[in-house]
Amino acid sequence: MATIVNNPPSNVQHTEESGFNFIIGIVLLLLFLYVLFVYLIPAIPRGFGGTQVNVPSQLNVNLHQTK
């Protein structure tokens, strides 16, 4: 004769998710990346004082050099 064991239902309620939490996570990740690229990355060189490059207003380039 076979023994039948009926396990009682667990107290954990399983609900079906529509993936809304996943979409919210993707939107938050994209928002974080946008803020990173627009605000934080350009601020990094300014935090180090930056590099100052002096460019003269007029360049004298002589293409016809004599030997």
Question: What does this molecule look like?
Answer:
The protein is mostly helical and 67 residues long. 42% of the residues lie in helices and 0% in strands. The chain contains one helix and no strands. The longest helix has 28 residues, at 20-47. It is rod-shaped.
Explain the layout of strands and helices.
Blueprint: H1 20-47
List keywords for this structure.
mainly alpha; 67 residues
- Beta-strand percentage range: under 5%
Helix content: 40-55%
- How big is the Rg? 33 Å
Order of helices and strands: H
**N-C termini distance:** 113 Å
Give the tally of β-strands. 0
Please tally the helical runs, counting DSSP H or I stretches of 4 or more residues.
1
| Overall mean pLDDT | 80
Low-confidence stretches: none
Shape by Cα distribution: rod-shaped
For the report, how would you describe the main beta sheet?
none
